[in-house]
Structure formats: C-alpha cells, structure tokens
C-alpha cells in the first residue's frame, strides 16, 4: 500500500522451534539483530531463559509461543532445532504458519529425508540445513554450557 512503511529486516522476527541446547544458543545470537520467539511443543510461555558468561548472568530477550498461538502464514524466518526423530512432527505443526516466502533453517543431530518437505515448498520458500561448530551440554538440567571455537558461557 502507498504510504505504508515496509519493515526493515531487523524488525522482522526470527522464530526458533525448540528450546533445547542448540535452539537456545541460536536464540541468544539471533536476539542481537532481531526480535526472537521461541516456539515449544508445550505451553511454556513465561519460562525465563538466562545466559551466563563467567559471573554475569543476563536474561535472554525472547518471547515464547506454542504453535496454536501463532498466526497462520506469518513466519518468514525460522530455525528448527529439534532432534532428528522430532523433525517430521515439528515441520507438520509449523507448515500452516509459514509465509509464502519463508526461509526455513534446520539444525539437528542426525540426518533426515527432507524430500517430502522440499516438494511442499513454494517457489519463494527456501529450506537450508545448518550445522554448528559449537556444542551444548546440560549440567544440571537447568543450565546449558556451550563451547566451540570460543568459550561462550552458560545458558540457564
């Protein structure tokens, strides 16, 4: 529409499906350049996540949502960070909420046959598979220690 301001890429949210080690690590970095919503399969809205580096603990600046709280065809950028066996279910739940030009990035341990999902993509949608040089270790269950090329710290 004429006169309407187009949102800048920074204003467009990033959705992260999965609140495990890799999902929270991606959410932590994505929050530096865009609003982030962590999508979980349970209704964990309001669960705070924290990043700890050495003695400084800071909350992650992310929103929370469950699939049923999302708006259809609204997601333009999404990182899917679930276990390989959870990927088909996560994609099936997510699909109605993807915009016609969504960019989908999948990162999980293991390999999956993406053929059925690639066939469902529109010409404007993209699907990528990402790997990391970082790892995560939950110890205890409420804390996440991550490391890779550089020491990143704790996420709790």
The proportion of strand residues reads 25-35%
Neighbour order of strands in the largest sheet: 5-2-1-6-7-8
Written as H for each helix and E for each strand, in order along the chain, the element string is EHEEEEEHEHEEEE
Distance between the termini: 44 Å
Helix content: 10-25%
What is the residue-mean pLDDT, rounded to a whole number? 78
Number of helices: 3
Keywords:
alpha/beta, single chain, five-stranded antiparallel sheet, six-stranded parallel sheet, 156 residues, 11 strands
Q: What does this molecule look like?
A:
- This protein is an alpha/beta fold and 156 residues long.
- Helices cover 15% and strands 35% of the residues.
- It has helices spanning 21-30, 87-94, 115-120; strands spanning 14-17, 36-40, 50-53, 56-59, 62-66, 75-80, 98-106, 126-129, 135-138, 144-147, 151-155.
- A six-stranded parallel sheet has the order 5-2-1-6-7-8, sandwiched between helices.
- A hairpin with a 2-residue loop joins strand 3 and strand 4.
- The protein starts with 13 loop residues before the first strand and ends with a strand.
Question: Summary?
Answer:
This protein has 156 residues and is of the alpha/beta class.
Write the layout of secondary structure elements.
Elements: E1 14-17, H1 21-30, E2 36-40, E3 50-53, E4 56-59, E5 62-66, E6 75-80, H2 87-94, E7 98-106, H3 115-120, E8 126-129, E9 135-138, E10 144-147, E11 151-155
Parallel strand pairs: 1-2, 1-6, 2-5, 6-7, 7-8
Antiparallel strand pairs: 3-4, 3-11, 9-10, 10-11
């Amino acid at each position: 529409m004429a006169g309407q301001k187009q949102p800048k890429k920074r204003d467009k949210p990033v959705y992260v499906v999965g609140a495990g080690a890799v999902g929270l690590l991606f959410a932590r970095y994505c929050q530096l350049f865009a609003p982030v919503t962590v999508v979980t399969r349970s209704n964990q809205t309001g669960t705070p996540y924290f990043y700890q580096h050495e003695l400084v603990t800071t909350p992650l600046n992310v929103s929370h949502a469950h699939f049923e709280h999302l708006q259809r065809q609204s997601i333009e950028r999404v990182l899917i960070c679930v276990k390989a066996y959870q990927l088909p279910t996560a994609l099936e739940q997510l699909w109605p909420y993807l915009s016609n030009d969504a960019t989908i990035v999948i990162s999980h341990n293991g390999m999956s046959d993406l053929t059925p999902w690639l066939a469902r993509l529109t010409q404007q949608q993209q699907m990528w598979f990402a790997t990391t040089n970082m790892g995560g270790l939950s110890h205890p269950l409420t804390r996440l220690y991550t490391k890779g090329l550089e020491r990143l710290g704790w996420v709790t």
